[in-house]
Task: structure prediction
Amino acid sequence: MTRHAITAKRVDDGPADTTELCGLAEAAGYEVVGEVTQRRPEDPGTCFGDGKVAELRDRVAERDAAAVLVDNDLTPTQSIALVEALPDGTRVADRRRVVLDIFAERAATRRAKLQVELATLRYELPRVEAEGDPEPLNLAAEKGTRLNDVRTRIDRVKRKLDDVADDTAERRRERRERGFSVVALAGYTNAGKSTLLHRLADDLSAATLERAHGDLDATASVEDRLFETLETTTRRATLDGRPALVTDTVGLIDDLPHDLVESFHGTLSETYHADAVVLVVDASAPPDRFRDRVATCRRVLDGNVEGTVVPALNKVDLVDGDALAERRKALAEHWRDPVAVSALEGSGVADLRARVAAELPAERCELAVPNCGEAMSLVSWLYDRASVERVDYGGDRVRIAFTGRTAVVERARAKADELSGSA
Result:
């Protein structure tokens, strides 16, 4: 059942744009039936001031709204004051709380569910403290209270998380040893990462690899809503002959709560430790919003990413040449040579493949081995793990030229030495 909500936003100056908040509301299961905005300094008691709070109260009653969603971070005392001022039963959720709700709904693995629960409890703790007796002696002596319960649950969830193995680092190591480069799709939420993943993936290969790697998915969702991708989705791609695994990661958002960033470090680490990061940016976003989203991506990526960032201007089918030139210039201030693509139509995807392949770590190698059955096995092994340039069968020798990850090259040389030694 869809719940009705009123959105509210206060700004110190300038326009109070609630477009993103409305998207968050929809993702959280609300239908926005009204909006209240304000331009003035923050009121320490209610964020908005008495007059605007009265307007909010009237709007909630008129539209029979179940919740007020605030596009600001509310202090615990502000949240309590708003709840008390609004009609009985009205829920008040600030931006951070709404994002927590979305993550809680979409977390699928046990680890993700525990991470969201921990972030939610940490969010609730100061609010529960604000509702209780402020006297330190009373707080210290509390037993069986809601405050004590929240603290106990935080400790319990942290212990459970410690017991849940985080195998992402081990999984990356194993994949690289098998010859796969690791590519992450990052970017602001709803920029088109999932659609681009479908364009880059080798569909026929995904089903086979899914049996060996539990996070590989042949049916990544491409719905047009915020935070559609919460768990990582990984699929195989061949980039200019190079075998790669491409991971679609959780979308970024302005003011993404720090606790959620901490909680989903495993998800973000897929971006941080990738060999290359394709930063997907929505070229169709209005200029101000485009710049804000680029700034958000910079804050998350700068200084954290080990691989090369390849900027991709997506949805270019929705903008004209002048607008595209402006977006390209703005993006190039931070990352070199943006690639223009339309994940929906497929234009520019070949250029993006080539650009990403050029940034992947690789070593070129030439081998000569005895012409025997084991040599054919080596050639087959290399086709699965490297980009084979040439195989020459001449006389008693097989000559192979290929490019691959250092680990693959080292293993191939060792295999070739074994063949030569046993010939």
